[in-house]
Amino acid sequence: MPHAASAYDRLWAAIRDDLGAGPKNIDRSIDPWTAWQSLDLVLAQTCGLPYRARLFDQVNLVGTPDYGLRDCPKGYYYSYLVRRRGETRNLRDLVHGGTIAFNEPLSQSGWAAPVAYLADLGLGPVETMQTGAHLASARAVLAGHADYAAIDAITYLMWDYAEPQVFADLEAFTRTEPTPGLPFITSRTADPKPIAAAVTRAIDGLSAEDRDILMLKGLAQIPQESYRALPIPPLP
Fold it and tell me: How far is it, in rounded angstroms, from Cα 193 to Cα 82?
């Protein structure tokens, strides 16, 4: 998110100063999968689904950032299901007669969470549209190319803080069940404990402005088993 880049740079600088090691700058150009699987990885954030589906035995879990979401255990999050404001169809009608926009099949919040939520109601996505990003899914719904989408609450609230107009014409009409959040990881060869301590101290030292932008409240320790207990969703 462009509006959060400088705040993340300051967070990383504090982590690096505490560790006394690591690259000077965040690398935003590298392919995520290349970074996540690199033996040189110091710190990255991934998603719960890639972690449990492919990465759990290739990386070390550092911890899970806590964003202080209401009605959520520490370090957990959920997705909002959004539709155009003024839409009169209920969820069942949207599913049966509409299209869900989703960012990618290996997204916990954009795909796995809504699939599980709908399955609990005896429903399943009928028509799907892959967009590549949560914001692109929101825009697809706004433009009428899709009828509903699942947007993770952190993305939704961070964008709403920076650009309220983005979601002004969307309605978050229900939400999925909470699941473990987007974990911080390091390479399999690195000791995650000093990194977790550095991350915790850096979050504690955030300025009030950066804390508001990043929504970070602390670092939770969620066991690997809590991630791996969740099912792998079917492909779209």
Answer: 38
